[in-house]
Amino acid sequence: MPNQPARDLPERMARLIVHERAPYNAEPPLDRLRVSWRTAAVDFYVRSHGDLPAIDARTYRLEVGGALGRKLSLSLAEIQAMPQTTVTATLQCAGNRRADLRAVAPVSGDPWDAGAIGTADWTGPRLVEVLTAAGFDMASAREGLHVAFACHDTVDGEDYRYGASIPLAKALAPETLLAHTMNGAALLPEHGFPLRAVVPGYAGVRSPKWLASITVQDRPSDNPIQANDYKFLPPQVDPEGVGPDDGITIETMPLNSAICEPARGAALAAGRTTVRGYAVCGDRAVARVDVSGDGGRHWVQARLEEAAPFAWTFWSAEIDLPPGEHELAARAWDAAGQTQPAAPDDTWNRKGYLGTAWHRVRVTVA
Amino acid sequence: MPNQPARDLPERMARLIVHERAPYNAEPPLDRLRVSWRTAAVDFYVRSHGDLPAIDARTYRLEVGGALGRKLSLSLAEIQAMPQTTVTATLQCAGNRRADLRAVAPVSGDPWDAGAIGTADWTGPRLVEVLTAAGFDMASAREGLHVAFACHDTVDGEDYRYGASIPLAKALAPETLLAHTMNGAALLPEHGFPLRAVVPGYAGVRSPKWLASITVQDRPSDNPIQANDYKFLPPQVDPEGVGPDDGITIETMPLNSAICEPARGAALAAGRTTVRGYAVCGDRAVARVDVSGDGGRHWVQARLEEAAPFAWTFWSAEIDLPPGEHELAARAWDAAGQTQPAAPDDTWNRKGYLGTAWHRVRVTVA
User: Fold this and answer.
1) Which residue from B232, B237, B337 is facing A248, i.e. has the nearest CB?
2) Which fold has domain A256-365?
3) Each residue of A263-288: pLDDT tens digit?
4) What pTM was computed for the model?
5) For burial by CB atoms within 10 Å, which of A161, A205, B4, B366 has the most?
């Protein structure tokens, strides 16, 4: 895995696996994800598209407006004085597990392992409260409306700032927040200080950081992040040949799972080994996880451990491994009985999104 | 496909593909599903577990009760005098496409082709209205409550009547109805006359016919249909060895699609052929359908035609077929970017539920 020189980065940012220094893109080693069900902010992956803005909380303003509201400008103190909600939610990059897709054929983008994911308590006002304060009338809610976010970070090498949008129904859902607090502490700069959206169940791209403004409008954001990027295309489609209306806009994240322990390439003692990992599905419960010690020929059912709506499920399983080389594998099943594809080939795509095949980890047992 | 002697059946019931005469289990040929987006009642699959009760609408009563309500007994006229809602919903048997799983290895149950599915307008009061009329207080809604249905049909060869249950949250959802009317006409006897539940997005097993009573309770129905049957188990699990708490209770149906035209084994003229079918996902939109004329090596994107929430999506595609034997294939993608498994092997299960692999149809082109 490419690991760029991390000098000049703060120590906490340098100790992650750094895919890119600027824009800063980094993920934790997988065993760090299993340290606790809520991921520490310093272990939480960072996906950024440009600079990490340095924003003064004392002068910060969030602008809220659009066709259906009056204009509203809120200070951070005013946002913190609104009714506050805490939601435990997993955020996950659309490119999580891209490395597994890259093993099939070349893809664009950073080669994320399975660590571009994390779970935290997010605290702030519900987005619906902020929209209502800006004059949005629930009676005017209708299909076809979108809530667009514009941000302070300038996309690297481009002359525009980051922006994205979500359908109004998701914006009004009780789990969707504007968060100033992560696990009880102010957001770190790399996680969006002083304010970010948290859209549980959706890909991280729809939970913008360093929020500048929110607009209710009758179309998705026309920001290139929304209009061109982060569209899922099947294997046979070349992204160069498609228009902005092609592809599936990546919102709800599909079923996925990963083995966090043992690590890839681990040297283990023969006998009983505990396998630990996570499983997650954007909008459905994880119903079952199976673990294999022989690449998928035999399976044992994992114990499901801590879970919550919109958050990952931790799981563990005991397997017996004789001496030799072995391929561990994990696959989850969701509440609708859907499972992950066995191999990445059928969902491989040139942009490397939504890598969800059985997670496979080779180990050596002596 | 086994097609039992259908003598003694009414003509409309005999002209379906009859898997079992008693209990009556039958599906339409797939081309009938494409005659119209709403399936005619006489073309709609029938899954029954026992007799088809003959109920006198004039004396019919629905009993409603349970821990949280007062007792209520409703005549059909009283049910029809409540506020009425029409929902367009697809119902699908959990065993739809079992024939494709049986081609991998033996399975139990009728070998349904892809016709154990249909879409109709269903009319009647919302279940929440009926529960509220029986004294159910929304403020008492909490996780862990279930709405159990008991029915008039005696399960064939057993000494109990049919019953099943759904979680309270789904019972309170605006799409969940008690229907007395299908496509504008009273239910046919085989579809549950005079009253059935319609639980859109869920497997048909949770939309019981010939409803006798409804009970709000703190556990799922203990009827064997709910407690033992209709649990999904992964391929490696022998249903004989599991307890009632094992397996995934089949509720929301997974992503699926089928080619309705041309028919399996069709003899076609070389050149352009129109392929037509359906795609459906219990709780997500169908985002894309791809069609292949060469068993999945190349794909074209299908046009998505009529669709609605909780209903199937019709689709069609034009493909060019040279002379020879060809395997057509269809696969759908849902709004979360999940797709169907390429082969049935990885989701094969001994009970033959949730057959969702790419639908494949072999044709001869001259």
Assistant:
1) B337
2) Immunoglobulin-like (2.60.40)
3) 999 999 999 999 999 999 999 999 99
4) 0.95
5) A205
